[in-house]
Design goal:
Number of strands: 13
Distance between the termini: 48 Å
Number of helices: 16
Mean pLDDT: 93
Helix content: 40-55%
Amino acid sequence: MAIRIENTQARRIFLDRQGLGLSPTAKLGKVGLLSLIEQIGFVQVDSIRTVERAHHMILFARNQTYRREDLTALLETDGALFEHWTHDASIIPANFFPYWKHKFAREQPVLMERWRKWRREGFEDAFETVLSRIRDQGPVMARHLTPDDHVSGGWWEWHPAKTALEYLWRTGQLSIAGRVNFQKVYDLAERVIPAHHYDQSVSHEAFIDWAASAALDRLGFATPGEIAAFFDIITPVEARQWVLANGHRLVNVDIMPADGQKPRPAFAWADVETRFADLPPPPARLRVLSPFDPLLRDRARAERLFGFSYRIEVFVPEAQRVYGYYVFPLLEGDRMIGRVDMKADRKAGTIMVRRLWLEPGVRASAGRLARLDAELARIARFIGVENVSYGERWL
């Protein structure tokens, strides 16, 4: 018989697993930051900087003592983190690198087939040329290998050298040694990844077990599809097979959704009841989340757990947008309470709040608005602007 997990408890479990049950004011430091990223599993990287880039927003939402220079040091000096692909470009603990070797191997034929369809024949001749250049002369950026007269555009207009860099990175031969104005600096993976991670290999069986176990650890409870999608390094079939093979370590759970309707069958570790029995409520503080926050990455799961429907409208024509180009979700305690449209104007030294939408049943009380204002003031200090300003019809 399945264990029933009520919606409030399910939300708290997921928030805890994703680092949002911790105190946002506890001193983090570099060691604590690495521990936080390992707990979350990965942090998505995105170039949009409406207020601040996604990875910084994700980490700041969990701890206001987060410092960018600590992340840079862990990535570029200590070798404790590396950049690669989950469902998208992400920052990943370097001790996961041996498992990513299996992803590299899977990517190679897929990417080669895909790119052969839109690149001219022989474009892969650039691969060895680029590797030799980096091996002999050191790290490069794409612009170092692109002719001055090349017209940049979408991926279909990439110069062969840019294609080579991305292919060699995605298949593990190159790594990201750093970024300059958010542009990747590529180097040989063996010069970027610490040797004790780079040289380590794991069997296919160990890879599947780790990927599924690590995903379930960070989700708290999940379906096979959610397990596979978390890191996006194993297939749904492999996740289902892992669940079947590990039935003695798992229990069936029924997760009650926010709307009180039919429960969602899932799996959890066998000690789920004792592991989370005394889980305290998350901090009551109101927090602004990145649109790419891992709490919301699985939109369907977030909607079931929080009753919160969220879509990024960056690629939606302006006239068809329901909310706005880049709208930030709002978390208060264990509830998603709304979203805010805001933009940093660094020249003017302000965060301009254009509009606030609260969820049905959530009141714009004086206390709640004061908590929002306090959080926005913290974000303003974090990104280095002086104040927060509100548009005429923001509320």
